[in-house]
Amino acid sequence: MQSFLCVSGVVVVLVTILLAIFKKEKDNRLEDGYVKINVFQNYKLLWDILKLPHIQILAIALLTARIGFSAMDSVSNLKLIDAGISKDDIMMITIATYVIKLCMPIFVSKYTTSPKPMSYYLKITPVRLLWAVTYVVLIHYTPSLIRNNEVVSIPVYYYFLLGIVCLMNEMMNFFMLLTLYAFFCRLSDPRYGGTYMTLFNTFYYSGFLISHTLVLKLVDVLTFMQCPVGALNSCPDSNELCETNRRSCDVYVDGYYVAIAICMIIGFIWYGVFRNVIKTYQSLSLPHWKINIVTPKELNKSRNILTA
C-alpha cells in the first residue's frame, strides 16, 4: 500500500506538471456573451442558479439518488472481510475495477453522448438495485464456502464468484456515473459551465457521503446480538458474562440485511418519483437552465439601439 500510494502520488504530480506546461486554455474573450466575474459574483451566480425551480427539484433528486445503493456500496466489503476474506483480496478486485473503468469510456461513449443519456441511467437503476440480492446471497454463504473445520481455505471458484459480483456492480455504477456527467453537461450554461458542474457534483456527492454515513449507523442500530449464557443475555449488557464463560455474543438479527432491504425499498421509491421528472428534464432546451445575466456587450448593444 505504501509503494502504491507513493507511485500514484508521483504520477499525479507529473501529469499535473505536464498539463500545466503543454495544455493551453482557449481564449474566450473575443466570443459573444463572454463574461468575466469575480469570486463574489460567482457565489451570487450560484444563488441565482439555485433559485431556478428545475434546479431545486434536481438538487433533491441528486441528494437522494445514492440512498438505494448505499448499503450495498458501503457495507458489503466490510461484511466480506468480517466473513474471512482478506483485505488483500478485496484490494486486488478493486484494482481490477480500475482497469475496467479505464477502458469503459471507449465502449460506452455512444450512449453517454446520445441526446438522452439519462434514459440509460434509468434503465440500469432497477437492475443495480436488484443486484444487491447477489451480495446478500454471496455474503450469507461465504462463511460456509471458505471455511473447512474453522480454517479459512478459499477455493478458486469463490474468487470467480466474488469477482463477477463486484465487477458487475462497479461497471454499472461507473456507467451510471458517466451518463450522469453527460446529463450535467447538457444542462450547464456554456458561459458558466464550471459553476454548473461544480454545483451538480456537490449535490450528488453530498448525498453520497450523507447516505453512506447514515447507513453505517443504521447497520449498527439494527444489529441485535445475544449471549447463549444467562437469563439476561442481550449484548452488550451480558458481554462480560459471555467472556467469563468463554462464549461470545451471537448475532441473531444482522443489520446489514435489514439495511439492504430498506435501501432497496427507498431506491425503488426514488425511481418511481423521479423517473418521469428526469425524462422531462433531459428533453428541456438550454434556456430553461440559463441565468439571465446581461453581458457588457449586450449592455453596449442596448445603449447603441436606444441612442439610435
Structural class of the secondary elements? mainly alpha
> Main β-sheet: number of strands, strand sense, barrel status?
2 strands, antiparallel
The number of helical elements comes to 11
Record field, number of beta strands: 4
SSE pattern, N- to C-terminal? HHHHHHEEHHEHEHH
Q: Are there runs of 5+ residues with pLDDT below 50, and where?
A: 298-308
Overall form? globular
Distance between the termini: 71 Å
Q: C-alpha Rg, in Å?
A: 25 Å
On the 0 to 100 scale, the average pLDDT is 83
Our estimate of the beta-strand percent is under 5%
Strand order of the largest sheet: 1-2
Please estimate the helix content. Answer: over 70%
